[in-house]
Design goal:
The protein has 195 residues and is an alpha+beta fold. It contains 4 helices and 6 strands; from the N terminus they run H-H-E-E-H-H-E-E-E-E. The protein has a 6-stranded mixed β-sheet. Strand 5 and strand 6 form a beta hairpin.
Length: 195
Amino acid sequence: MKLNSIRQAGVWAGALGLFCVALASAPATHAEDKMTAQSLIDRQLILDQITRYYYNFGKADRQSEESFYAEDGELILGARHYKGREGIKQAYNRAPAASAASAAPAAGAVPAAAAPPRERTAFNVTIDNPLIIVHGDTATSQVIFTEYRQEKVGDPMKFTTQGKEYATWVKVNGQWLYKTRQIASGSNPPEGWKE
């Protein structure tokens, strides 16, 4: 009985070895045609850039969002398109503080009590299942993002939304920057999407 078990194990090991050889020699159909050390480095650099972009949200002192984009980059949020760094800056524009002139009450008016500053609550975004394909100095990426927020300080984090980011990338002076970044809900890629 022991001899039979050893033979069976040998057959399985041989079959597994043949499968691994066949898998390793099969051509890549959807990924890069040739995996290189540079393409692996570039994939990690892009993933780091995506991670930094999402870590930036919710910070009091954050890097300008448009700095993650190429000069002619585009942000697509549903039907809204923001082109170039100035357009992208407008997409993230926070309400400016009221100037002293506009905040002054009209002559004879009773000044209203100042509204208390809004309490800053935690806002976290996680990214999952990154698929990054490098084509020399351009690349594509897909990630799933999930947002978590607090209703008030001290409350547990609550899941608020989830979606997918589809992006194209360009390498500019050695740095990977978004060329296009499109947010989509559901699991279908945007029309015309190509890896």
